[in-house]
Design brief:
With about 375 residues, the chain is an alpha/beta fold. It folds into 2 domains: about 130 residues, Lyase, Ornithine Decarboxylase, Chain A, domain 1 (Beta Barrel); about 240 residues, TIM Barrel (Alpha-Beta Barrel), CATH 3.20.20.10. The chain contains 13 helices and 16 strands. Bound molecules: pyridoxal-5'-phosphate. The site of pyridoxal-5'-phosphate (PLP) has 17 residues, from helix 12.
Length: about 375
């Protein structure tokens, strides 16, 4: 029988295993909590800083807007990609001395007011549709803008997170580029950056090199483009024994492209890569059940706290921390307490024999976890603790 334990052949043990005693203490006295470890964020930043081909890293703050994480990232000289006025305002509230030149604003199908607002505030805006230039050209007169284009091929861990290609609502398609050039000219705007984000959870390291090549083709249609923003989407493995994303291979592929395109800065805007592994959702076993030939382990929170498994079929490692190292004696579905069949964190997971009040860790929950939570069923989302 296998045991849930760390094998020497696996990557480094997760931080929450190294700090198991501390985590068990935190879990004592509260049913659920998100716990974030700042050191893990620091290490992720450092890995991206070490990339030779990347000139600037912006954090896609939609992934997690916890104030402690935002302050840490700002102090580590990571800049920010925001998708709404609400995100920008929150960021400026929690990091009041942040220079606005460190913010990139990437709205999608947003109302006219958002573009006017960003112009008045003086933050760099990205357009991802012809419509704003057709309908409201006066807003962009004399303004430096970025353009988000559709590189043609979506990538990612699920259909819902592919943000390019014919079935995605994002980006200006290639066949509209001629019209785009003339609209930009008519509006009197100045295109300084070309952007694409083709999806989330992309495991193929050469994807960003291909995007850079495609963006450069479009950049050549404008006089003043100095930035190719290659988006985020760097893969984060869900399973403990999966290989980490191959950053070196990505860097090498990009270095080759950059050597052919010396006039451009390359930017990256990851969300998940910077914060996913730093966060866990901590909960407790509430009830146990055997029905048909299936075992169920019920826990004290649900899809209202972490919707990724229900929304994207996302895989999150689930560990009984109280009984870590015990034989994995049964196979069970780990389910939440929300009144939905989709409220399932994991299917057919090998688990130790579990008991009421055991502490359960749902791993890699630092990105798109608490930020996507709701009060569905009037169950409050878990509080956040930073260590
Ligand atoms: C424009 C843009 N940039 C960056 C990201 C970050 O993606 P990820 O968290 O997969 O790195 C997103 C995610 O949706 C996005 O829409």
């Amino acid at each position: 029988m296998t045991r849930q334990e760390h094998h020497p052949s696996m990557p480094q043990p997760a931080w929450w295993l190294r700090r198991r005693d501390e985590i068990l203490k935190i879990a004592d006295g509260q049913l659920n909590a998100y716990v974030y470890e700042l050191e893990t964020v620091r290490q992720s930043v450092q890995r991206l800083r070490d990339l030779q081909s990347i000139d600037r890293v912006l954090y896609a703050m939609k992934a997690n807007f916890n104030p402690h994480l935002l302050r840490l990232l700002a102090s580590l000289k990571v800049d920010f990609e925001c998708v709404s006025p609400g995100e920008v305002e929150h960021l400026l509230r929690v990091v009041p001395d942040l220079d606005k030149s460190r913010i990139l604003f990437t709205p999608n199908f947003a109302p006219r007011e958002d573009y006017q607002w960003s112009r008045d505030l003086g933050i760099q805006v990205t357009l991802d549709n012809l419509y704003p230039l057709q309908a409201w050209p006066e807003i962009f007169a004399g303004q430096k803008i970025f353009l988000r284009v559709d590189p043609g091929q979506g990538h990612g861990h699920h259909e819902h997170v592919k943000t390019a290609g014919d079935r995605s609502k994002f980006g200006i398609p290639r066949f509209e580029v001629d019209e785009l050039v003339s609209l930009v000219e008519k509006a009197g705007a100045d295109v300084v950056g070309i952007h694409a984000h083709s999806g989330s959870g992309i495991p193929e390291p050469d994807s960003w090199g291909q995007v850079a090549t495609e963006l450069a083709r479009i950049a050549a249609r404008f006089e003043n483009v100095s930035v190719l923003d290659l988006g985020g989407g760097l893969g984060v493995p869900g399973r403990a024994d999966e290989q980490a994303f191959d950053l070196q291979a990505m860097d090498q592929a990009l270095a080759l492209v950059k050597a052919r395109l010396p006039g451009y800065e390359f930017w990256l805007e990851p969300g998940r890569y910077l914060v996913a592994e730093a966060g866990i959702l901590l909960t407790h076993v509430t009830q146990l059940k055997g029905k048909g030939n299936r075992r169920y382990i019920g826990v004290g929170t649900g899809m209202n706290a972490l919707i990724r498994p229900a929304l994207y079929d996302a895989y999150h490692e689930i560990v009984n921390l109280t009984r870590y190292g015990d034989p994995l004696a049964e196979t069970a579905n780990i389910v939440g307490l929300i009144c939905e069949t989709g409220d399932t964190f994991g299917v057919d997971r090998p688990m130790p024999v579990s008991h009421e009040n055991d502490v359960i860790v749902i791993a890699n929950a630092g990105a798109y976890g608490r930020v996507m939570s709701s009060r569905y069923n009037l169950r409050e989302p878990p509080q956040e603790i930073v260590i």
